[in-house]
Design a protein that fits this description.
133 residues; alpha/beta; six-stranded mixed β-sheet
Length: 133
């Protein structure tokens, strides 16, 4: 086992990976059942279906956090996927949060008023705390 895994207080229970074009998504399920989607790259019309797939695969998790702290570009198609995910989570009494810490993600979310519909946090630890409650 790697030293990093041994020193981590709560190693992920399972890991999945998704990749398409300029988008990479890594899905980790914590021992508490929270699904963390770490999203990197460009989320646009061409790659938004990949995020939709990752969120669909996470549908049974009691809580999902979409960590977009390494997203370089967020297009309106990606914002739409996040809004629909938040609506589905609410209708199923599940928790959903987005980490929006980069200028590009914050700008896209504010231009579309997605902040009103999607719970957004500036840091992963704050989003994890919010969905764990």
């Amino acid at each position: 086992m790697s030293r990093r895994l041994l020193s981590h207080p709560h190693p992920p229970a399972s890991i999945s990976a998704y990749s398409q074009g300029q988008l990479r998504i890594r899905a980790n399920t914590t021992p508490r059942g929270i699904q963390v989607l770490t999203i990197a790259g460009e989320l646009d019309l061409a790659t938004a279906p990949l995020l939709e797939l990752a969120l669909q695969d996470s549908r049974h998790a009691p809580a999902v956090v979409a960590d977009m702290s390494t997203v370089g570009f967020l297009g309106f198609a990606g914002v739409d996927v996040l809004i629909r995910a938040a609506q589905r989570a609410e209708s199923r009494l599940r928790r959903f949060a987005v980490v929006a810490s980069t200028r590009s993600t914050q700008r896209a979310l504010s231009l579309t008023d997605a902040y009103v519909r999607v719970p957004c946090y500036p840091r992963l630890d704050l989003a994890m705390r919010a969905v764990a409650e």
